[in-house]
Amino acid sequence: MLPTIRLYDEDSHLYSFSAEIISCEKAENAYMVILDRTAFFPEGGGQPADTGYIGNARVSDVQIKDGIITHYTDIPLVAGEKAECTLDSEKRFRRMQNHSGEHIVSGLIHKIFGFNNVGFHMGSEDVTIDIDGVLTRQDLDRIEAEANRIVYENVSVRAEYPDSDTLQGLEYRSKLELTENVRIVTVEGCDVCACCAPHVNRTGEIGIIKLLDFISYKGGVRIHMLCGRDALEDYHKRYMSIAEISAGLSAKQSQVTEAVERVKNELAAEKQAAVQLKKQIIELKIALLKPCEGNMVIFEADMDMLNLRLLVNRAVEMCTGVCAAFSGDDEKGYNYIIAGKNIPLKERSREINSALNGRGGGKDDMIQGSVKASEQDIRRYFQDFS
Ligand SMILES: [Zn+2]
Question: Among 30, 66, 70, 243, which is most buried by a count of CB atoms within 10 Å?
């Protein structure tokens, strides 16, 4: 079979075309369709496959092997017939914006810092590039400013297959061992790189290049970036989010960082005050404890384990049986601490937990855990507990 004619090589902005169906075979969950020519870019070089239609058949994936491009469709097509084909052009254009932007950024990093792009991935969220050297935020800010200057200059982006003599003398990134049939993509005055993917015709089409976060990765850095329409949408989302935060904090958008700091400090002060108040409440509760014969059962709506223990430690001195303290409510259940001097609680914990649908344990003089039982049932249980 002849290699498929790659229309995207010649014209990256060709989104609809007609082609002859060479073959159609049933695969596991799809039909494999081969055309005589195609504008569908097959997955490769970090860029996902194009999607779209061949006639009425939906194309969900495109792969290339030995020069033959296979389209995966949802319904069969008839070999020998002609078909009108359309790409999901918006998706493809965004990918070209991102991919051409990536070449500019990787090219500049190579030119200025001498590092290489060793990994490129176009995900659903953003684009990542892995660089084999360490870069700082300042370095990336510089690259971003320079990359956008190349966008403003609206220089040409060319894709061509140089003859082997020209290729041998050519300095380019992603150098291949091949001596011919190497597709070279040149961003005028900025970058020369081997690449099989479609690109924008001029850098102005990229619109904007935005470097987002970066992390240390395999001795270098992984950079997250977005270009063009994806970057604009990302800006819109971030803008709406900051507008909401600014309204929530009653602060100007330019002052939300200070406002968040203020709220954090206020919250810390309130937490400190709450700790003091809880301490005072516990002291008052302890002062109000009355000596009793038998077991003492205490219920608190919302007391942390630390304060519950303070309360139990004092209360157990004032009763002859056990002191069982519970914090929570009937719906969510209760956390408990049970203390007593004359009953081996560690041994009895299994029995208590099984009676009150709970879990927990501890030592002979104190156990703790949680139960799923009602206040009424718990009180009834401890009436006869000995
Ligand atoms: Zn590329």
Answer: 70
> Based on the domain organization, do 188 and 112 belong to the same domain?
yes
Which residue range forms the structural domain that includes residue 259? 252-288
Q: How far is ligand 1, taken at its centre, from the CA of residue 45, in Å? A: 6
Statement to judge: residues 219 and 270 lie in one domain: no
Amino acid at 55: G
- CATH number of the domain enclosing 340: 3.10.310.40
Residues 58, 198 within the same domain: no
What is the Å distance from ligand 1's center to 305 Cα?
59
pTM confidence score: 0.79
Count of the separate structural domains present in the chain:
4
Domain boundary among 54, 87, 120: 87
DSSP 238-264: HHHHHHHHHHHTT--GGGHHHHHHHHH
> Nearest 5°: phi and psi at 190?
-130, -50
Rounded distance from Cα 100 to ligand 1 centre (Å): 7
Going residue by residue through the chain, which has 386 residues, state the pLDDT in tens, using 9 for 90 and above. 899 999 999 999 999 999 999 999 999 999 999 999 999 999 998 899 999 999 999 999 999 999 999 999 999 999 999 999 999 999 999 999 999 999 999 999 999 999 999 999 998 899 999 999 999 999 999 999 999 999 999 999 999 999 999 998 899 998 877 778 899 999 999 999 999 999 999 999 999 999 999 999 999 999 999 999 999 999 999 999 999 999 999 999 999 999 999 999 999 999 999 999 988 998 898 889 899 899 999 999 989 999 999 999 999 999 999 999 999 999 999 999 999 988 899 999 999 999 999 999 999 999 999 999 999 999 999 998 98
Could you tell me the CATH number of the domain that includes residue 33?
A: 2.40.30.130
Q: How far apart are CA 64 and CA 83, in angstroms?
A: 20
